[in-house]
Amino acid sequence: MKLFHEAESKYYELLTYLVNARKSFTSQELNELALEYFEGEIDYEVWDVLFSKKDGEEVLFKYENNAYQIMLEGEIPIRSTLVEKQAAKNLIQNEYVVCFLQEETIDKLKTKLETIEAAWNESVVNVKRRNIANNILDRSGLYTVIKTVMNAIYAEKAIVYSNTLQDGTAFHNVSVFPVKIEYSLQNDMFRVSVYEPVEERFIRMDLSTMTDVSISEKKMVGLAKKYNDFIESNMKTIVLDVEPVSYIVERCFRLFSYYDRKAKFDIEDNRYQLEIRYLKFDEGEIIRNILSFGESVVVTSPEEVRKVVYERIKKAYERYD
Amino acid sequence: MALSDSKLLIRDYENIRHILRDVYMYGCFSREDFVAKGISGRKYDNEQRRITAYLPEDFIQKRRENKKVVLYCTYDKKESYSNKLAETYRNKSFTLFDVMSYFYVLHILSLETEATAAQILEDMPDYNEECIFTSATLRNKLDELENIGLIHSSKRDGNVYYSLSDDIWNDFSDDELLDIYQYVTYMRNTAVLEVPYFFLQQKLKLYMKVKRNCNPEEFSTIHYEHNHLFNVLDDCVVIEILSAIQMCKSMHLEVKSINGSYETDIIPIEIVHDSVYGRQFLLCMKRKEKEVSIIRIDRIIRAQIMDDVISDDKKYISEMKQLSEHCWSVSGFDQPLTKVIIEFYIKDNEYFVLRRLNKEKQHGSIEQILPEVYRYEIEVGDPTEMIPWIRSFGERAKVISSGEYQIEEQIKANWKKAVEKYEAFS
Questions:
Q1: What is the pLDDT of residues B114-123, one digit of tens each?
Q2: What whole-number distance in Å separates Cα of residue A279 and Cα of residue A287?
Q3: What is this structure's pTM?
Q4: DSSP B92
Q5: Residue A12 and residue B99: Cβ atoms within 8 Å?
Q6: Which helix (H) or strand (E) holds B146?
Q7: pLDDT tens profile B250-303
Q8: B193: closest CA among B244, B241, B238?
Q9: What's chain A's Rg over C-alpha atoms?
Q10: Residues 211-270 of A with CB under 8 A from B
Q11: Does the distance separating the beta carbons of B127 and A71 come in below 8 Å?
Q12: Helix (H) or strand (E) holding A237
């Protein structure tokens, strides 16, 4: 099954949109649409062929009266390829389907895809060291919570909820403004960052502990910007020296690949340096990752983090000494 | 000007795969560094030009380091739901015949319930002098469109009739499609294979914009943490392996090695995905040597599905499944199990550490032996694989025993050297 295929080309997608729009386009309009549809640059060798102004070289559009006119009478039907249908088939077989789709939708999908034979089965992949949450039975309850919170974020409205903490403390009818839902692949956890209006602070909560979630009419505009400003003001930078041994460098760069980072390699000194920007609330995770490398990754700055790591390493050594 | 003049579109994804991985993961190598690693200057120039063109300029950037230009990628947590690297799969080269046949065949079949190749040929355009369809060229293209699932064919009365594949999204409401779109975005960011969900996501977005006048990107979405974006670059290999396993077929691989590359025939058993470093491994049986082997998937250059697995090999394979069950990650599957005992020192108010230990213990067991002291036992094939995990607990973990591997001595030496390094730095 070949993934790399022209049917999934960004040019085909744009052409489908253009033909189905059933209108003419100026060169400027086409360029603007390309910027909207394409993540990178326009390939002008391809562009000039697809939108040729010369007679006898037209593809789907003819250049007339300073605009591109569609030559094809009618629409282009939009159909899913086999690879896409295979992906849809795997959707319904995944245990997380109940977090996102209602039963009726799942049944419809099953019916639509029953003639599609599964070309691959993701369950043959043995995923190691991922912490799957054990509360599988609770996942169906997540559908309503996720949907309600996402609708509230979109509408910039507050939610009202109840929850019980691990120590047994229960809260009822609490009102907060949700800003962002996050899912951690490593911890198999949905969390929501919210703004608590009474204490005027942002907090992060485990979505699976929330019950009786509903949208309230209270609205707060501009919360996304306030949250981004909060994040920016709580970012820290750490600089690491990485031992120039290939498997250590590889492991280190893989582990920190999901942070905003900048790396330097000095070929003459054979030295690697990695600068990582992180949220100060994630410092515990950063330090754990640094400790995992033992003597092979050393914190060079900031001073206060270097001291913390040094103290912990010293105590760790003393355990054995 | 012809489509073949394009210097950016490519025929083979392998062209950019490895360079792009190095650019994303490391982002600190210059052209000279790549040449020193064995990649020709010309290849680097071509591929870095392509990579730069495929990806948005706020994602892929250049900077000067010590008089050299370094290509690197940025990671923005705010954009974590959209892996830009997947976009590189949308740059396959195509010909005039490819694009004209795609659009005109779909269009013609949307007007008719079904049509023969001859009937379709009558309605194919002839205004482009470089692209005049013949019966033979059209049949090739019809076969291609059928292979990718966009059209069907059926035989009747000695004729082959072509028709459009079903619109599987037609009966879903806008709300249902939005739910499906969100779910596809989730799967795209969490499944081992990303690209098929990425393609589905793009198609759904196009469908909703064109047919339902609704842009699903306007709605809020979930953001993702701890996602190893670079794994998408291996999807072209992973999908072949998963398909071979599903169909119970053997494979022919070309694999990178220190001296260049080598080729081997194998029977795939399972894929092991390590979530911490994002490494992916193929556990397989080498056909010639009849022995089990582990191959890093990011080192596989080419993977080709071959013939059916014979029943003797099938029996052997089914016995080898779950080989990695008692591995911490993937090493030591062929070794006798060794018991590792670790003490964890966790204060009563450090419940988050105990929670972490419970989540990450794998097939090990935990028992509280004293106030604030927990004993963890596990049997693994290769205890040395556990060392980074043990170290990540710092002073809270101490290895008590690990059989002949004596990893406690190695960890003690690591900490000693680390202390010396930090004290020298001060």
A1: 999 999 999 9
A2: 12
A3: 0.95
A4: B
A5: yes
A6: helix B135-147
A7: 999 999 998 889 999 999 999 999 999 999 999 999 988 888 999 999 999 999
A8: B238
A9: 26
A10: 228, 249-251, 253-255, 257-267
A11: yes
A12: strand A235-242
- DSSP track, A129-192: S----S-GGGHHHHHHHHHHHHHHHHHTEEEEEEEE-TTS-EEEEEEEEEEEEEEETTTTEEEE
Q: How far is B289 from chain A (nearest CA, A)?
A: 24
Chain B residue numbers with beta carbons less than 8 Å from the beta carbon of A185 are 189-190, 224-227, 275
Q: At residue A208, what is the residue type?
A: S
Residue B110 CB-density burial (10 A; 0-12 exposed, 13-18 middle, 19+ buried) = middle
3-state secondary structure B340-408: EEEEEECCCCCHHHHHHHHHHCCCCEEEEEECCEEEEEEEECCHHHHHHHHHCCHHHEEEEECHHHCHH
CA separation for the pair B337, B342 (Å, rounded): 16
Quick check: B284 contacting A, CB < 8 Å?
no
HSE-up (13 A, CA, CB side) for residue B24: 26
Average pLDDT, chain B: 92
Q: What is the pLDDT of residues B26-45, one digit of tens each?
A: 999 999 999 988 899 999 99
**For residue B87, what is the nearest residue in chain A, using CA coordinates?**
A39
Tell how strand B291-296 and strand A157-164 pair up.
Answer: unpaired
Question: How far are the Cα atoms of A289, A303, A316 from residue B393, in angstroms, in the given order?
Answer: 9, 21, 9
The answer to whether B256 and B296 have CB atoms below 8 angstroms apart is no
Using a CB-CB cut-off of 8 Å, the residues of chain A touching B354 are none
Answer whether B196 sits within 8 Å of A87, measured CB to CB: yes
Q: What is the pLDDT of residues B353-402, one digit of tens each?
A: 999 999 999 999 999 999 999 999 999 999 999 999 999 999 999 999 99
Q: Is A127 on the interface with B (CB under 8 A)?
A: yes
With an 8 Å Cβ cutoff, are B72 and A263 in contact?
yes
